[in-house]
């Protein structure tokens, strides 16, 4: 936690995403997709603190026995918030704001967006792609968990953009 993504890539899985992120997402895919308000309800402060400490000390983390859906979901958001450089760094954020200032969608915006995303560091691109796929999966359960894409954007926006 609090370490640049590029540093964690040494620990990454085959998709180029830090192991702890894949571990948390896999847990949430199994146990959390149907959880009402996943990512909105805060987890146990003590559990989050203990799990974070284990990850930081390089210990083996058993989310099934030591965690719960709300604590793991909170821990994932905390990891993203504590990145020293946000998934969308400042230079990309200003470009995104300029691209989407107008209210009308057009082909130029799409091209600008593709260009901006291609400027993200590879570690950030990998994490964004992985998280996007997961959050789309969460949203497919919105009839049960009430987490639409809009709700997920509200919850994750502050963690992805600083």
TrEMBL record:
One Gene Ontology term, aspect cellular component: cytoplasm
Domain of life: Eukaryota
Xref: InterPro entries: Rho-GAP (IPR050729), Rho_GTPase_activation_prot (IPR008936), RhoGAP_dom (IPR000198)
Signal peptide boundaries: none
An MF annotation (GO) of this entry: GTPase activator activity
Residue stretches making up the Rho-GAP domain: 3-162
Pfam families per the UniProt record, alphabetical: RhoGAP
Alphabetical UniProt keywords: GTPase activation
GO BP field: signal transduction
Record keyword Kinase present: no
SUPFAM superfamilies cross-referenced by the UniProt entry: GTPase activation domain, GAP
Protein name: Rho-GAP domain-containing protein
Species per Swiss-Prot/TrEMBL record: Accipiter nisus
């Amino acid at each position: 936690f609090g370490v640049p993504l590029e540093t964690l890539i040494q620990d990454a899985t085959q998709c180029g995403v830090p192991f702890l992120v894949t571990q948390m997402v896999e847990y949430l895919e199994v146990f959390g997709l149907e959880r009402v308000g996943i990512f909105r309800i805060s987890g146990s402060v003590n559990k989050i603190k203990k799990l974070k400490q284990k990850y930081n000390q390089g210990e083996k983390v058993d989310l099934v026995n030591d965690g719960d859906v709300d604590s793991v979901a909170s821990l994932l958001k905390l990891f993203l918030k504590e990145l020293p450089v946000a998934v969308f760094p400042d230079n990309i954020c200003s470009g995104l704001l300029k691209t989407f200032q107008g209210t009308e969608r057009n082909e130029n915006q799409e091209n600008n967006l593709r260009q901006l995303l291609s400027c993200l560091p590879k570690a950030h691109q990998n994490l964004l792609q992985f998280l996007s796929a997961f959050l789309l999966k969460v949203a497919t359960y919105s009839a049960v968990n009430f987490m639409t894409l809009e709700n997920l954007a509200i919850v994750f926006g502050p963690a992805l953009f600083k």
